[in-house]
Amino acid sequence: MSAPVLDMIQIRKQYGGVDALRGVDFSVRGGEVHAILGANGAGKSTLMKILSGAEEASGGTISVNGEPVLISSPRDAKRAGIHLVQQEVDTGLVPYLSVAENICLDSQAARGNFWFSPRQNAREAARVLARCGFTLPLHEKVENLTLAEKQLVLIARAMSQEVRFVIFDEPTAPLSLTETEALFALIGHLKAAGIGIVYISHRLPEVFRIADRISVLRDGQKVLEGDTSSLRMEQVVTAMLGKSFDEEFPKETTVIGDLLYEVRDLRAGRKVKRFDVKLHAGEVVAVVGLVGAGKTEVSRLLFGADRRESGRFFLEGKEIRCQTPQEAVEQGIVLVPEERRLQGILVEESVKDNLTLADLRRYTAGGFIRAGAERSAAESLVKRLGIKTAGLWQAVGRLSGGNQQKVAIGKWLLTDAKVYLFDEPTKGVDVGAKSDIFRLINRLEAEGKGVLYFSSEIDEAMGIADRLVVMENGRLVKEWVRADWTEGGVTAETIMYYASGGGSVGSESA
Amino acid sequence: MQAGVAVLEANLHRERLEPVQAGAEAVSEKRSLPGVVQRYGSLLAIAAVVVFFSIVNENFLSYDNLADILRSISIVTLVAIGVTFSLIVGGFDLSVGSAVSVSTVLSASLMVWYRQELLVAVLVPLLFGLVIGLVNSFLVVKVRIPDILATLVTLYIFQGIHLSYTHGYSIYNNMPLTDGSIAPGIMIPSFLYIGQGKLWGIPVPVVIMGLVVIAVHIFLSYTKHGRFLYVTGGNSEAARLSGIPVNRYRTLAYLLSAFFASLGGIVLAARIGTGQVMAGSPLLMDAVAASFIGFSILGQGKPNALGTFCGAILMGVLMNGLTMMNVPYYAQDIVKGVVLAAALAVTYLPKLRKTA
Predict the structure, then answer these.
(1) Residue B328: inside a domain, yes or no?
(2) Considering only B31-45, B49-63, B326-340, which range has the smallest mean pLDDT?
(3) Which site from A129, A217, A334, B24 is most exposed, i.e. has the minimal number of CB atoms within 10 Å?
(4) Lowest mean pLDDT among A41-50, A246-255, A328-337, B16-25
(5) What is the mean pLDDT of residues A129-153?
(6) What is the end-to-end Cα distance of chain B in Å, rounded?
(7) Nearest to A296, CA basis, from A439, A405, A425, A179
(8) What is the pLDDT of chain A when averaged over all its residues?
(9) Which residues of B202-220 are buried (b: 16+ CB within 10 A; e: fewer)?
(10) Domain range for B72
(11) In this complex, do B227 and A369 lie within 8 Å of one another by their Cβ atoms?
């Protein structure tokens, strides 16, 4: 039996006029690990969604062994022997069914027998597990398993059918070191069995360890492809980042004032292992890290939106409680969250209602809303932020991403906030709105506010920050001040290197 | 199932990426036929029903009959206003029927068994209503039981409580007590006035209903608390991250829901002059129907007081007309169910279409 070959040719995908993929070629052979790398929004997940049938391509062809296959649903993909091991393992599993039942879920769905025999099911699952070389408790409920074990269940499920290609989407993100080792052993096993593997990851060291080939996507195009042995890490990092951000950042340096805000020993679960930061008046501190590094979690903890295990907050020298968002807002700490449409704005409500929401008290008299005062406040904000809207009564959900973001930020500007937390504020925002947002941050700085800027966009963070800390896997791993990168030779590549876990590898080789 | 999840994810993804396009769709929707149905559907339905019945029956449009319709819907409207509060915060209060029953027998028994005066007969049931609201909000907000299940539980608990309290018997003047004696008190006239009297020629229940509808409408539309209630229901996470104490507003909604149900129960007791057991149960369905029909009034697309009032009118007109046409009362539930299904379809169908 010759090794199967999967080819994706000139794959294109558009979301409402925006190009997510512009003609990407990608191939994987049986017995090979082909890694896909790329920054956020580069198109990695879109490409894999198309391959696994979750989304349909706008153009291009997919073929297996030279024969074109039509993949328009996950079922089609599975029929072609292509299986996806999701990043969020829980979305693929039924928690209250046993391991055996979960393993045979797909084959059951495919066969569609009327009767269900638990014994036959368990036998079949045991056979699959034996073939994979896993030991899992067959009758345990899946909800009682660890994340790593759940992942094994997903892999075993893929193996229970005819499988020729397996896609791993950030498989090591939830895993501990030993679990990661076990996964790598398994991937080696699959390779040996002649299965083609697509491996998506942010973490460079592990990609260099297990991949045979590496492709880098950027802005919906493939910008680099080569055998791992012929590539260097720096080369891949440069390809991921593209040419350095040449856009004019309107960064104005302001005098940095006294210590404004301090966080000591913040911890919560495995996502935030330790976080400390000091923020001065008129200072922008960027917290940079890859997706999943724990930035969003930290920002929510600082805002009191989630419960922390430990951590003390000090504002202007006094310790503050900050257990709920309400308390945070009262103390003057505000958050512009990453999930804008779900958390930052009320999409169905009007621009006016959104802008005055956080400080409606100010426009009420005896509980009644003073319509005139509210309207003029909203009007002046719309003007000040340059929000492009048909009117104050326009539902915010109908604005463009950038204008939605301005509303999400704008609602805090009328409060007397002292510390602004921005979580990925430029995500899904066009260039014009982006520089508006940066200008706004500059203005907050000039007013003596403190800004914590959480981002995975390294260039942007370098543009706006006075100080930059790198977060990786729930911890802070590196810190620089602005002079380090404006004069001192620290580059985006250096930062990316630390953000992708290169720091630990580097110290070994040094 | 996996496919379902994937499609769902794809839709979420798409929605996040295409706000502008989604907006364009929504705008065109308003002008299209389904858009018109959604916007004016309830009002058109009321008009059509009124025209139909006035043609079929000449007495339908008489002052007496119209006053009758308003009086008949007054209690349902009060209960429905309560349900509307629970819907606004994104919840659902199924226990309002039981709250009505409790309040009815409580006010009647206070007068008939314990010879209490007007103030006690009114205030105690209202206070007990707030207790029901507290229990509901405790289960929903603190224990985090899903709304429908939590209030289904309290529906049964308080139904049981009011049956235990009365030993399953309705309460009326001079009723025999378990010890063989005759009940000492009667339903006092000042109390009965609440349900049977007239103020400026308008039945008192209609006056109460009118005041409540107007007050609640103003509260919801023009006060901070009204807006925060809507925001809590619209997206409670976004509201919470805006510093709004969403749990306090959800609690408030359940308190108000039970409060208005209890008020309805008092009016009901005064209207029929006895404390009927299980009197509130049939009101649940009507109140829910009225609230949901009200969603679409003038294209609001969310629960609102005036809409709920219109919904109650539609139900009342239908029932009145059907009674005049000698449709037996037990068959009227079929009509109610069908009307509610239609109202829900108008509310939910366009959303389905948008995500498809």
Answers:
(1) yes
(2) B31-45
(3) B24
(4) B16-25
(5) 81
(6) 17
(7) A425
(8) 84
(9) ebbbbebbeebbeebbebb
(10) 2-16+40-351
(11) yes
Q: What is the pLDDT of residue A140?
A: 84
CA angle, A14 then A18 then A20, to 5°: 55
pLDDT at A246: 44
Contact assessment for residue A430 and residue A399, using Cβ atoms and an 8 Å cutoff: no
d(CA B327, CA A123): 62
Distance (Å) from the C-alpha of residue A189 to the closest C-alpha of chain B? 26
Query: How far from each other are the two terminal CA atoms of chain A, in whole angstroms?
Result: 45
Determine the Cα–Cα distance for residues A251 and B29; give it in Å rounded to an integer. 44
User: Distance between CA B117 and CA B183 in Å, rounded?
Assistant: 15
pLDDT in tens, A406-419: 999 999 988 889 99
Count of domains forming chain B: 1
**B224·A397 Cβ contact <8 A:** no
Q: What average pLDDT score do residues B187-201 get?
A: 89
What letter would DSSP give residue B94?
T
| Cβ-Cβ contacts under 8 Å, A398 against chain B | 19-20, 22-23, 26-27
Residues of B in contact with A73 (CB under 8 A): 3
Instruction: Kindly state whether residue B22 falls inside one of the protein's structural domains.
Output: no
Do residue B17 and residue A16 have CB atoms under 8 angstroms apart? yes
Residue A368 is nearest to which of B26, B223, B234, comparing CB atoms?
A: B223
Which among A355, A357, A333, A359 is positioned nearest to A418, based on CA atoms? A333
Tens digits of residue pLDDT in B304-313:
899 899 999 9
Query: Alpha-carbon distance B280 to B169, whole Å?
Result: 15
Determine whether B242 is exposed, middle or buried from the number of CB atoms within 10 Å of its CB (0-12, 13-18, 19+): buried
For B227, which of A330, A334, A353 is closest by C-beta distance? Answer: A353
Residue B53 lies in a domain: yes
Asked if B259 and B96 touch (Cβ cutoff 8 Å), the reply is no
Q: How far is B89 from chain A (nearest CA, A)?
A: 14
- Give whichever of B76-90, B274-288, B315-329 has the largest mean pLDDT: B76-90
| DSSP for A72-92, written as a single string | -SHHHHHHTTEEEE-SSGGGG
- By percentage, how much of chain B surpasses pLDDT 70? 85
Interface contacts (A, B; CB < 8 Å)? 123
pLDDT higher than 80, residue B12: no
Strand, coil or helix: what is A116?
Answer: coil
Q: What is the CATH number of the domain that holds B48?
A: 1.10.3470
pLDDT at B82 exceeding the cut of 90: yes
Question: Given an 8 Å threshold on Cβ–Cβ distance, is A367 in contact with B240?
Answer: no
To the nearest 10 degrees (0 to 180), the angle between helices A401-413 and A431-446 is 20
Instruction: Point out the residue among B10, B19, B245 whose CB comes nearest to the CB of A398.
Output: B19
ipTM here: 0.71
Is residue B31 domain-resident?
no
Q: Which of A85-99, B5-19, B300-314 has the lowest mean pLDDT?
A: B5-19
Contact at CB, B242 and A325, closer than 8 angstroms: yes
pLDDT the model gives residue B262: 96
